[in-house]
Structures are given as C-alpha cells and as structure tokens.
Design brief:
By secondary structure, the chain is α/β, with parallel strands linked by helices. It starts with 28 loop residues before the first strand and ends in a 9-residue tail after the last strand.
C-alpha cells in the first residue's frame, strides 16, 4: 500500500481564548472588610487564585490566625478561578483556624473543584452574607 505521501498543508486553527477565570482573568485581590461582629475577620476574595497568586491568600489568613480571630470568614462569591494551590490554602486554613466559614454563592468552578476532590463536606459553607448578618 503506497498512498500519496505529499505533505498535507496545516489547517489554520481559530485563536483560543483562555478559560474563564484562568490565565488572563482578573488579578487576585483580597479585601479585609470591617465586621460588626467582634473577633471576626472578613476577607472578600476577587479574581483568579492560582500558584502565582495564592500567596496573597496565605498572608491574609496568616494575619487572621495571628489575631486569634474567633471566626475567619472568606467571601468567595467573586472568585473567578481557583486551582489546587488555592484548595490547599483553604484546607490549611480549615485545620489551623478556630472557625473558618466560606460564604457564597460559591462560583460554579469552585463548587466543582470541591465536589471532585471530596472536600466540600469539610467546609462550613453559607449561601450568602445575610446568613451571618454581613449583608
């Protein structure tokens, strides 16, 4: 069998866009908000958290732990992406903080990450800020 061995021209591919919340998305930001509850540290996370940006979360959580906050509340509603390094930081906080609360609504990608890794059951997740008086 001696078929035609001429090179086949490459088919141009359409440009690909980065995945939502992945590379090219909003930079990771953490804002510490005032809380009406004494002993509560409220951190609002925004943007994409991966290996290159998760250190910001680590620093904010370390500060909260050193303050010996009764509750550490992470508002995840505006997180566009979180990878395994983000999950690792959340798991570390779960075991090192007295009471870690995650507030949503939890973005679809993060919810999927928690479900696929079997970690959702470890966290106390509240559907929104109103559930803890932080609306």
């Amino acid at each position: 069998m001696t078929g035609d061995r001429r090179p086949v021209p490459a088919t141009p591919r359409p440009p690909t866009e980065p995945p939502p919340g992945g590379a090219g998305s909003a930079e990771a930001r953490i804002v510490r908000e005032a809380s009406a509850e004494s002993g509560t540290v409220l951190l609002t996370l925004t943007g994409s958290f991966g290996a290159s940006t998760v250190s910001r979360l680590h620093e904010a959580l370390t500060d909260a732990r050193h303050e010996r906050a009764t509750y550490t509340v992470l508002d995840l509603a505006r997180v566009t992406f979180g990878d395994s390094s983000f999950l690792h930081e959340l798991l570390s906080a779960h075991f090192s903080h007295r009471n870690l609360l995650l507030v949503g609504p939890i973005p679809r990608q993060l919810h999927h990450l928690f479900l696929r890794t079997g970690t959702l059951r470890l966290f106390t997740v509240l559907p929104d800020r109103a559930r803890i008086g932080l609306a």
